[in-house]
Design a protein that fits this description.
The chain has 163 residues and is an alpha+beta fold. It is built from five helices and eight strands; from the N terminus they run ααββββββαββαα.
Length: 163
C-alpha cells in the first residue's frame, strides 16, 4: 500500500490529501488487472468509479462509424474515469489496454467511506476532481475552437496528465 500512497501523492487529484486519508480510501479501493487487449470499461457502460493506472499502457478510444478512434494514450500514474464520480452518466469512451495493466479502482462507495472517515478530506478530494475535470474541459474547448477555426489540433498529451 505504501507504493500506492506514494503514487497518489504525486497526483494533483490527491493533492493535499493526508496519508491517513489515502490509506482509508485505499482500504476500500480495489486493484484491477487487465490483459493486453482487455478493457477497463467500454463506451456507454454504466459508471461509478475512476481508475489510477499503476503499471501498463492503455488507450482512451471512442467509437466512430464502427471503428475505434484513439483520443489519448495512458501510462503509469495517469487517472481516468473520474467524471463518473461526479455525474454517474454512462462512460463517454472506452479504455483499452495496450499492454498488461494494473490499476487502482476507486468507486463512489469508497468515497463514501472517506466521507465518513474525514469530511474535510472528502471535500478536498471532490474539489480536486472537479478541478481536473475543468482542466480537461479547457483543453477540449481549445481543441474544439481550433478545429472550428480550421487549425490543426494540438497534441492531446496533456489531456489526461495529472500535472
Amino acid at each position: 500500500m505504501h507504493a500506492q500512497i506514494e503514487l497518489l501523492q504525486r497526483m494533483p487529484i490527491f493533492g493535499g490529501i493526508r496519508e491517513d486519508s489515502l490509506r482509508a480510501l485505499l482500504d476500500h479501493a480495489r486493484s484491477v488487472t487487465q490483459p493486453t487487449g482487455g478493457y477497463f470499461f467500454e463506451e456507454n457502460d454504466p459508471a461509478d468509479s475512476m481508475f489510477v493506472l499503476e503499471t501498463g499502457r492503455a488507450s482512451v478510444v471512442k467509437s466512430w462509424r464502427r471503428r475505434e478512434v484513439v483520443l489519448h494514450r495512458l501510462t503509469d500514474g495517469d487517472c481516468f474515469g473520474e467524471m463518473a464520480l461526479m455525474d454517474f452518466c454512462p462512460r463517454s469512451a472506452s479504455v483499452r489496454c495496450d499492454a498488461d495493466c494494473l490499476a487502482i479502482e476507486i468507486g463512489a462507495a469508497d468515497l463514501l467511506h472517506l466521507f465518513e472517515y474525514d469530511v474535510e478530506q472528502f471535500a478536498l478530494l471532490q474539489m480536486n476532481i472537479g478541478r481536473e475535470v475543468c482542466r480537461r474541459l479547457r483543453v477540449t474547448d481549445e481543441a474544439l475552437f481550433r478545429a472550428t477555426m480550421g487549425e490543426a489540433p494540438v497534441a492531446s498529451d496533456t489531456l489526461f496528465r495529472s500535472g
